[in-house]
Amino acid sequence: MSNNFGVISTIVGVMERVEDIIDLTGIESKEESLVLIKALLGDEKYNQHLDIISDLIDFLCYLTKNKKKLHLNEKKCMKYLSSCCI
Fold first, then answer.
1. For residues 77 and 81, what is the distance between their CA atoms, to the nearest angstrom?
2. Residue 53 neighbours by CB distance under 10 Å
3. Which CA distances in Å does 60 have to 12, 44, 65, 82?
4. Where are the domains of the chain?
5. 3-state secondary structure labels for all residues of the chain
6. 5: burial class by Cβ within 10 Å (0-12, 13-18, 19+)?
7. Other residues' Cβ atoms within 10 Å of the Cβ of residue 19
8. Phi then psi for 68, rounded to 5 degrees?
9. pTM of the predicted model as reported, rounded to 2 decimal places
10. Which pLDDT tens digit goes with each residue over 39-68?
């Protein structure tokens, strides 16, 4: 992961891949996503960011299911996430 948003990009990418698995419940999808994210990030980085990873998955699912839109300045938002979460 060479860019500043590698963890977030990894989470979103894994969630998109898991979403294609038809027979999973929401809980199973999250569990599968967490397993794949851990494999990609490695134990140390995964454990360091586990709380934010789990919360981000829940938040992204909430947004997509409820079709909510955030009107945030993307650069400011990503700058904040970069400094606190990655």
1. 6
2. 24
3. 9, 23, 9, 17
4. 6-85
5. CCCCCHHHHHHHHHHHHHHCCCCCCHHHHHHHHHHHHHHHHCHHHHHHHHHHHHHHHHHHHHHHHHCCCCCCCHHHHHHHHHHHHC
6. middle
7. 13
8. -80, 150
9. 0.68
10. 998 999 899 888 989 999 998 888 877 765
